[in-house]
Design goal:
By secondary structure, the chain is mainly alpha-helical. The chain is built from seven helices and eight strands, in the order H-H-H-E-E-H-E-E-H-E-E-E-E-H-H. Strand 5 and strand 6 form a beta hairpin.
């Protein structure tokens, strides 16, 4: 190992690394000297299976979301982990001219993005100008269209936060980036079947634009009453069905037992 100059079995080291990753440990220590292994050597170790490296990438990304790290960031396009050295000018906050900013190019999606403001590359704008224009984009997206006042210009995906513009069709949208399903009108994520939950007019999970969009209290009162009524009626209907089955099955059996002997007698009387 480079940290302690102790020779270790490569198979044992891989087993040690894979065991720690399976247990959800981010900081993996050297088995000889307990020195923390570099995360980049684990991510780019071709001897590890791809599934193990992806698992470690997810663990590392979760750890990054809990605490900010100036040397490790996720690509804003595909969430791929990008690791820079601590002495890198970008990490140390060196200021560049607008035309000479070294953009970060993701190794997975090959997209360029800005390390400082965590946005797509903006060669003609500073980070402050880009954020200002991005705010204007939010305002434009929330603006209702002149030809259709019920539809906004664009809707943000509730999972990956990219804007999606609907040209035609229904309000059931599927994000092309993360495959998340959401409603275009209200922007909420759809987890239940669209025709049962979100598209139902009187469902408590329904879209707010289906019933009294400007009166939320009245909408919740009506939908809550319908839901409570269904909860009350459900056991009554179930009990009635059970009672019908309990009465109907013995009745059918009794009638069948009485009618079965009479049928041959009637047949015989007919031929006499």
């Amino acid at each position: 190992m480079p940290c302690c100059s102790i020779e270790l079995c490569s198979v044992c080291l891989l087993t040690h690394t894979m065991t720690n990753i399976d247990n959800g440990i981010v900081k993996i220590e050297c088995p000889a000297c307990s020195h923390e292994l570099n995360s980049s050597t684990i991510l780019y170790n071709n001897e590890l299976p791809i599934t193990i490296r992806e698992r470690y990438q997810q663990i590392l990304a979760q750890d990054l979301s809990e605490k900010q790290n100036t040397c490790i960031k996720l690509c804003p396009h595909c969430n791929f982990i990008t690791i820079l050295d601590e002495n890198n000018p970008l990490v140390r906050g060196k200021k560049y001219r607008r035309s000479s900013i070294p953009w970060i190019r993701c190794e997975q999606c090959d997209q360029e993005w800005c390390w400082s403001c965590y946005s797509p590359s903006h060669p003609d704008e500073t980070c402050r100008q880009f954020k200002k224009n991005h705010t204007e984009l939010d305002v434009w997206a929330k603006t209702r269209r002149s030809e259709n006042r019920n539809q906004r210009n664009a809707q943000r995906c509730p999972k990956c936060s990219i804007y999606i513009e609907k040209i035609d069709g229904c309000d059931h949208m599927i994000c092309t980036k993360c495959n998340s399903k959401f409603c275009y009108r209200c922007g909420s994520r759809i987890k239940l079947p669209f025709y049962i939950g979100h598209d139902a007019k009187y469902s408590i999970f329904g879209c707010k634009y289906k019933l009294w969009p400007k009166r939320p209290l009245l909408r919740w009162l009506i939908r809550g009453s319908v839901f409570a009524g269904l909860l009350i009626l459900a056991p009554i209907i179930l009990s009635a069905l059970i009672a019908l089955l309990a009465i109907g099955i013995p009745t059918v059996l009794i009638v069948g037992c009485l009618a079965l002997p009479l049928y041959p007698c009637l047949k015989c009387k007919k031929y006499l």
